[in-house]
Amino acid sequence: MTKQNDQSFIDQLTLPEKAALVSGKDAWYTATLERVGLKRLMMTDGPSGLRKQNTNAAVTGINDSVTAVSFPSSALTASSFDRDALNQLGHHLGKAARAEKVGVLLGPGINLKRSPLAGRNFEYFSEDPYLAGEMASAYVDGVQAEGVGVSVKHFAANNRENQRFTMSSDMDERTLRELYLTAFEKVVKHSHPATLMCSYNAINGTLNSQNKRLLTDILRDEWGFKGLVMSDWGAVADHTAAIQAGLDLEMPGKGPASTQEIVDAVNAGALSEHDLNRSVLRVLKLVSDYRPESETVEKYDLDEQHQFARKLAGESMVLLKNENVLPLKQGRSLAVIGELAEHPRYQGGGSSHVNAYQVVTPLDAIHKADAKAVYEAGYQLDSETADQKRLDAAVSAAKQADQVLIFAGYPASRESEGFDKTSLALPDNQNALIDAVTAVNDHVTVVLQNGSVVLMPWADKVQGILETYLAGEAVGEATWDILSGDVNPAGRLAETFPIRLADTPSYLTFNADPEHENYREGLFMGYRYYDKKQVPVAFPFGFGLSYTTFKYANLQLNIGSDSVTAQLSVSNTGNVAGTETVQAYVANKASRIEKPVKALANFAKVALQPGETKTVSVTLDQRAFSWYNPEISDWQVDNGEYDILIGTSSQDIRLQATATLDWPQAAKPKVTLNSYIGDVLALPEAQAALKASGLTETFAALASGETTDQQMLLNIPLRSANMVGATQEQLTQFLTLMHEL
Ligand code: BGC
Questions:
Q1: Which of 240, 270, 389, 449 has the fewest CB atoms found within 10 Å of its own CB?
Q2: If we measure between CA atoms, which residue out of 679, 657, 588 comes closest to residue 626?
């Protein structure tokens, strides 16, 4: 029997049939070919819960989608630093998709958070490419293990929303490779996603939907991607150019117009049938691999998924400040203030929006727990101006309470797919409320609900801050689990919280130009910037408190042939069980290139009972010691010293040791006539050749570099070394010996 995904099947198809296959039939389906019995495959958003829309619903309509559990947004799940949890999330999403007969889930979104203003940051994992790649891989493995494909999006460098269909993300090659492509590379190589979704934007002037370098040379030829590339919805500007570049499926299709366009292009010789067949085959393979076969109705347990959403949110929330106010003291009076406690913001706007199964608000959870609490709205969520009556009532409730919770955050209108923010400030009425309440009570905890970074000018005035991001439908229960002490907070920030917008690395360029986004900060993004520039931050990357304390000790390094393993012990030195996230950063001392002070290279979670000690081991692979060298179009590792920094945040390094690499696969030092005498003398690999050619002796008088004259002479290249007595013969002999190394 002919399989529906091989060449002989393609041979039976007419040109219009093939043309129909490379465009979506509509917003959510691939084409059906009744003549040859080919069925359609459904794709559905999204990253934090299923948004399976009823046919004919508007692309961004929300109310027409099926009921599904709203899981925490990726901004929160990344704060778990927990691969297992992300894998389980993937399984849950996969199960839901299968039950709804969805073949491909449109997620996860794994772009980096370059600017905290970017509108879609809530949907993305991190400012750090390693963390984003790890979270994404675990998630993808989970979904695909359920027999459902994913579409990892938005490939690539889609880091702003304004003019997203046309703007160009302009950056140098190292920045592209070491930051913005890294997470995609990880997922492609490790998790083999069924599809990638190419983003709307251009990179360095070429639209991603027709960017052959991105979609074919890098993705397929370098990384070995075997799946399908679909467009983001409406990203195709020139379908022929897109297919030629390596895009397989235009989404959504434009109906007969799409088909005709392709037929005409083939007939006119503008598109080769070979290129068309290549994409057709990938569409057929996707449909045959992922179209749910079962016609029987599969059920899945929404209550179980709700419980998982609660657990995941609770394990991910980040405790930012706690001056002995949390967990809340039982039996003492509590004032709950802020409309977000009653009408929580638990998911973001746009294509990730889910028709939630069962939203439990913080107020619901507090009532369910029978906590003695009074509630005041304090402000109006849909307005930015203070409502004096609400404010007065809140202040008076706060005066009479032993402890106060203020629920604050961005209203939905501030943060969504499709546009960027212009400010990181909370609405004025919320800041005013916090100021007024802290003036009358000194046991105040602010509980934040927001998709991305907020500024906290009041941080010093409050005693507690809990960052809950957009926590999904179990927001109330998960928040109460932490506030009450049932769950010990273990989340760590996956992004830096700056003190001011003007402190952020892309402040000078972000959204400055409608057509071009200049990534002038280059590699210095996120903590890589704040570290290097020594800019103080409100809360650093990797930071998060616990109700217990941890002690780190006994760091030992084991240098392998292509990795370094760090082993250490972590103890719980407090009174309650807790989970620590051990973070390993690498500081490259060896390479003479622009580089961050340090970069995250691995992390491990460790759960500890009070008094318990465990050994933790983290392996840092060769990539952790490598940089992308555009001159050789490859990753390069240099021998020399690397500091391994073990910390509980990017700014709280507890242990440190140096790994000196001497790997045969490392780059050979490049010595030419343009190399400087001082550099050559410092090279361990050059010593034998220097000696054999007599240059050791010739340069002996300068070698110490103690006087200014010596320093000046060390700073001349070999080609001018006759000025310090080197002969032509010595230099030739030295270079010959070096090249033989
Ligand atoms: C978004 C994608 C989404 C698609 C389908 C686009 O506007 O950028 O993330 O998957 O719509 O809803």
A1: 389
A2: 588
Query: Helices (H) and strands (E) in the chain — how many of each?
Result: 22, 28
Gap from CA of 567 to ligand 1 centroid (Å): 43
177 CB less than 6 Å from ligand 1?
no
Taking Cα atoms as reference points, which of 85, 92, 62, 158 lies closest to residue 119? 158
Q: Which residue minimizes the CA distance to atom 11 of ligand 1?
A: 233
Q: In this structure, what are the phi and psi dihedrals at residue 518, rounded to the nearest 5 degrees? A: -90, 115
Element (H, E) at 195: strand 195-198
Q: Is the dihedral of CA 238, 243, 247, 249 positive or negative?
A: positive
For helices 256-267 and 273-290, what crossing angle results, to 10°? 140
Q: What is the DSSP letter of 72?
A: P
The predicted pLDDT at position 710 comes to: 92
Mean pLDDT of all residues in 190-213: 98
Tokens encoding 516: 């071009």
Helix axes 428-438, 388-400, angle to 10 degrees: 30
d(CA 279, CA 295): 28
Mean pLDDT of the region 509-526: 98
Q: Is 643 a catalytic residue?
A: no
C-alpha span between 564 and 36 (Å, rounded): 55
Candidates 45, 232, 420, 481; catalytic one: 232
Structure tokens at 163: 């003019």
Residue with tokens 């389980």: 88
Q: How far apart, in whole angstroms, are the C-alpha atoms of residue 670 and residue 639?
A: 13
| Gap from CA of 106 to ligand 1 centroid (Å) | 8
Whether the model pTM is above 0.90: yes
The answer to whether residues 497 and 542 touch, using CB atoms and an 8 Å cutoff, is no
- Encode pLDDT of 402-458 as tens digits: 999 999 999 999 899 999 999 999 999 999 999 999 999 999 999 999 999 999 999
- Choose the residue to mutate in 28, 106, 155, 419 for probing ligand 1, maximizing ligand atoms within 8 Å of C-beta: 106
pLDDT per residue as tens digits for the range 556-578: 999 999 999 999 999 999 999 99
Query: 232 CA to middle of ligand 1, Å?
Result: 6
pLDDT tens-digit readout, 673-683: 999 999 999 99
Which residue, by CA, sits nearest to atom 8 of ligand 1?
232
Q: Which two three-digit tokens encode residue 321?
A: 């400040």
User: For ligand 1, is residue 233 a contact (CB within 6 Å)?
Assistant: yes
User: Which pLDDT value is given to residue 293?
Assistant: 72
Nearest alpha carbon to residue 724 among 735, 713, 715, 733: 713
Which ligand 1 atom is at minimum distance from the Cα of 164?
8
197 Cβ contact partners less than 8 Å away, ≥ 6 residues apart: 106, 151, 152, 153, 154, 155, 229, 230, 231, 232
- Amino acid identity for residue 494 in this structure: A
Phi, psi for residue 247 in degrees, rounded to 5: -85, 135
708 CB contacts (<8 Å, ≥6 apart)? Answer: none
DSSP string, 491-522: ---SS-EESSGGGSTTTTTTTSSSSEEE-TTT
DSSP track, 519-537: -TTTT--THHHHHHHT--E
- Please count the other Cβ atoms lying within 10 Å of the Cβ belonging to residue 639: 20
Measured CA to CA, the distance from residue 735 to residue 686 in angstroms comes to: 10
Residue of 154, 161, 351, 416 best suited for mutating to test ligand 1, as the one with most atoms within 8 Å of CB: 351
Contacts of 175 (CB under 8 A, 6+ apart): 519, 522, 523
Q: How far is CA 124 from the centre of its chain?
A: 5
Residue 58, pLDDT > 70, answer: no
